[in-house]
């Protein structure tokens, strides 16, 4: 039984803020302890929550996931943004869906994550976990990067591109899709390697085995940067490297629709209808 539910919303969205206040009152009227806010005022004891409801688009879900994944708290996204591939319910469906969740009529979907270990000169290694993607991109807008890629310790190629990203199945409908990558079933544990605007190159996007590990090395002298889910940024220089593989952690999403819902709505979502 769910006794503590957090409500996470985009403070820059007036509809999200209004719905968050109404939802908080609705939950409290049912005797459920709540917290309502954004990342800047999140409680320390997030691991005590049974559920985190996310009101916004995929960007809001990514910010909420940064709190929820380490604490193993499941997420319930509500589509309020321009892009909402991770949400399956709309604001009109929120309260009936929550009634089902509170009654135990739901299932939990596991989403694979990507782990990135960053090695920079004169810095200790850093570890990051991504729900969407790990990206090495250029810092200088007019410069092309050279990025060497190894898969399972085998040198594969050197991309001359604006960047190279490694996406999860969840991230396959985000930046990776815009860069020409394939859409993966969200239940897939595979990673996808996607070059961004590769120059004179014939190695396409690759869907990798779920246990594959990649090593991405900066081999050009032009300034590069690491981005994780579009939020965490680290400058990279020549000979810096990023090791990427599937993370041992997973993200949990509370669902009230069957798994086939992804395919039922995929075409509409791709058309932004």
Can you walk me through this structure?
- The protein has helices at residues 14-29, 58-71, 94-102, 175-178, 261-270, and strands at 4-9, 33-37, 51-56, 75-79, 107-119, 126-130, 133-138, 145-151, 154-161, 163-167, 191-196, 206-208, 213-218, 224-228, 232-236, 241-255.
- It has 273 residues and is α+β, with helices and mostly antiparallel strands.
- The protein folds into two domains: 4-106 and 256-270, Probable inorganic polyphosphate/atp-NAD kinase, domain 1 (Rossmann fold); 113-248, Tumour Suppressor Smad4 (Sandwich), CATH 2.60.200.
- A six-stranded antiparallel beta sheet has the order 6-5-16-13-8-9. A six-stranded antiparallel beta sheet has the order 12-11-10-7-14-15, with no helix packed on it. Strands 2-1-3-4 form a four-stranded parallel beta sheet, with helices on both faces.
- The longest helix has 16 residues, at 14-29.
């Amino acid at each position: 039984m769910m006794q503590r539910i957090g409500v996470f919303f985009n403070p820059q969205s007036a509809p999200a803020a209004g719905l968050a206040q109404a939802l908080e009152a609705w939950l409290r009227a049912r005797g459920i302890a709540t917290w309502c806010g954004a990342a800047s005022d999140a409680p320390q004891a997030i691991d005590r929550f049974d559920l985190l409801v996310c009101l916004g688009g995929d960007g809001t879900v990514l910010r909420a996931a940064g709190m929820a994944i380490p604490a193993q708290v499941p997420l319930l996204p509500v589509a309020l943004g321009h892009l909402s591939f991770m949400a399956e319910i709309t604001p009109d469906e929120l309260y009936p869906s929550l009634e089902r969740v509170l009654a135990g009529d739901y299932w939990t979907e596991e989403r694979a994550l990507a782990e990135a270990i960053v090695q920079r000169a004169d810095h200790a290694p850093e570890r990051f976990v991504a729900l969407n993607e790990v990206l090495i991109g250029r810092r200088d807008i007019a410069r092309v990067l050279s990025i060497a890629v190894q898969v399972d310790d085998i040198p594969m190629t050197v991309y001359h591109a604006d960047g190279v990203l490694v996406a999860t199945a969840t991230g396959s409908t985000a930046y990776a899709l815009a860069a020409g990558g394939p859409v993966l079933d969200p239940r897939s544990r595979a990673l996808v390697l996607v070059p961004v605007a590769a120059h004179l190159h014939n190695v396409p996007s690759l869907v990798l085995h779920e246990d594959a590990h990649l090593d991405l090395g900066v081999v050009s002298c032009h300034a590069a940067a690491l981005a994780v889910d579009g939020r965490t940024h680290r400058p990279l220089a020549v000979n810096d490297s990023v090791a990427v593989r599937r993370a041992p952690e997973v993200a949990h999403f509370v669902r009230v629709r069957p798994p086939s819902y992804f395919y039922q709505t995929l075409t509409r979502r791709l058309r932004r209808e």
